[in-house]
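Marked as duplicate of an earlier ticket. Keeping the data here for the record.
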Amino acid sequence: MHEHELWFTALLNKYLAAPVNALYQLVGYHTEDPSRPWSNYIAMEVLVILILMSAALLLRARLSVDRPGRFQLVIEGVYNFLAAQAQDIIGHGYRKRLPWFAMIFLFILTSNLLGIIPSFESPTMYYFVPAGAAIAMFFYYNGQGIQEQGLLGHLKHFAGPVLLIAWFMFPLEVISHLIRPVSLTIRLYANMLAGEQVTIGFLALIPWVVPVIFMGLHVFVSFIQAFIFTMLGMVYVGEAVAHEGH
């Protein structure tokens, strides 16, 4: 499917095509048009990262214990909410894993919300981006399980509670874990693509009033999908690091 080039993508293709082409050549990838190596979803991901970095720098410059600003209060509210969820779901050792989930939540949320701004698109409406986040979550929770309990201890989770049925449970658990990044990808990608297309369609047909309702729905879905993705990741980590008897 041919994609229309957003103005931000065109800007990156105009001034930063050479370094991207050099990177592609390094990994053995060849683009159809070397003069336009930037795709919309990659450009939007870069924009999301720039937004988050700018927000972090702005927040750091204005941090205050006595007189916190509105932005600081919002971020603290989000952080405390995620901390409460992580404590309930993961349990022991949740604090050292909280930065990962805060990063995932803010990245997905910002990516989702970017689509409501005219001339931009949600990078999560392209399946590459949800797939990348899902694969990162897959390696993260398995890595945490191995770090917490060792390789053999982590693999015991795949064998089930009864040794006699381990031969049956192990392959089922492996398949179940391999399906997890697929389900995370499809859920986020399908919801954001549908929301984006509905909003764009109504903006084209009826440019006033009605699209505002669907934009509000898009915002709601954006929060819900970021929340679901993050909570499922917490559940997977909680299962991976759980010890017998917990």
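See parent ticket for discussion. The helical segments are 7-15, 17-27, 40-61, 70-89, 98-113, 128-156, 166-205, 210-241.
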